[in-house]
Specification:
- The chain is mostly helical and about 140 residues long.
- It has two helices and two strands; from the N terminus they run αββα.
- The radius of gyration is 48 Å and the shape is rod-shaped.
- The model has no long low-confidence stretch (mean pLDDT about 85).
Length: about 140
């Protein structure tokens, strides 16, 4: 065999190995693409119902927020009405009631009758979070 024939055989063997390697790579790539296509189809099948549920939930939340907004505006109106009523009642009855109470107090003082008994206040000392009566305090000092 001559040198040219050996070189030709080596090149043919190299090309055969290269083509075999590329065929294996292409088969593996086809398998990966098939698995990826199946995975994308599965994700799509699961994502569409989830998106529909999310859309329904968002619509429901918006409806509830509209209701809460209506309730809040009603509460604000009721509060303003109650405030107006309170100020009306205070202006209508507050002054006369204070005058009647002052008159009653003046009459009691004039007649010398007092319902209030003077209260004796005892001093207390706080020691470490406890209130100690004055009698015990004197014992502690002495």
């Amino acid at each position: 065999m001559s040198g040219g024939e050996v070189a030709g055989i080596l090149v043919a063997v190299f090309w055969a190995i290269l083509v075999s390697f590329l065929a294996v790579v292409l088969v593996r790539l086809a398998q990966v693409l098939k698995a990826t296509t199946k995975l994308v189809a599965d994700v799509t099948d699961q994502a569409v119902p989830l998106l529909a549920d999310a859309s329904t939930t968002v619509r429901s939340a918006r409806t509830q927020l509209d209701r809460v907004d209506a309730i809040a505006s009603d509460v604000q109106e009721v509060t303003s009405n109650a405030s107006a009523l309170s100020s009306t009642v205070a202006s209508a009855f507050g002054g006369p009631l204070v005058k009647v109470a002052a008159f009653g107090y003046g009459v009691r003082k004039a007649l010398g009758k007092t319902d209030e008994a003077p209260q004796k206040t005892t001093r207390r000392t706080v020691i470490v979070g406890r209130a100690v009566p004055a009698a015990r305090r004197r014992k502690q000092k002495g």
